[in-house]
Input
Amino acid sequence: MPEGPSLVILKEEVKRFIGKKVTRIAGNTKIPVAEFEGQKLADFKTWGKHFLICFPKKTIRIHFLLFGSYRINETKITPPRLSLFFKNGELHFYACSVQIIEADLDSVYDWSADVMNEAWDPKKAAEKLKAMPKLQAGDALLDQHIFAGVGNIIRNEVLYRIKVQPESLIGKMPKKKINELIREARTYSFEFLEWKKAFVLKKHWLAHTKKICVRCEIPLVKKYPGKTKRRAFFCENCQKIYK
DNA sequence: CCGGTTGTTCAGCG
DNA sequence: GCGCTGAACAACCG
Output
């Protein structure tokens, strides 16, 4: 569930509830959400991996973490963390983090950092990267302040596509390669969205969970590099390390 | 049945 | 105060 494009799919699936009144709110969240009962749902937004349920004055923020899930007009066996009931249906969230945001969203979120957002700004990403020369390329892609919405799958696929080894240092990469990384982070995310919608995401993976490099026909390396220590799949032959 | 993970936060330490 | 590490959370798959 968790990467940015999946939240865009969710946002499309729940459009029917925009403008509708919440007739009942429930769930095992410890966050006090009773105040939203009876309120009109103003909008759904996403920022990276944050799913935002907007009410006139406040916003409920859902983060799916690693195991979070949701159901529309059906339930799972496990108890919902948060449930919203409307006259025209119901929406349930499981195993997710729930928070209430009281501040104006524009003051909380830098929309230009979200790879799925129309306000996405590659120049700003380039500026942020320039200030972090010692950052590894793999860690950079997972940095939500720079590439909000990019998760481990997108990270592995982008680096494989642009032939960059995840431990490469940003400061050692040519400007052209940095720009390629930024461009591909967005391009791949939108392809991820289309493939996921069509239920064909996995079959398009070239690196993530794969054993063999399709370009070199040699085994891929599995390693947990960088500060994020997420599993990285890469080819030592065709993905260049800049160091 | 066990090991592993599309993620983040926080306590503890040096 | 900083960065780093490990734990915690939690559900499902193979």
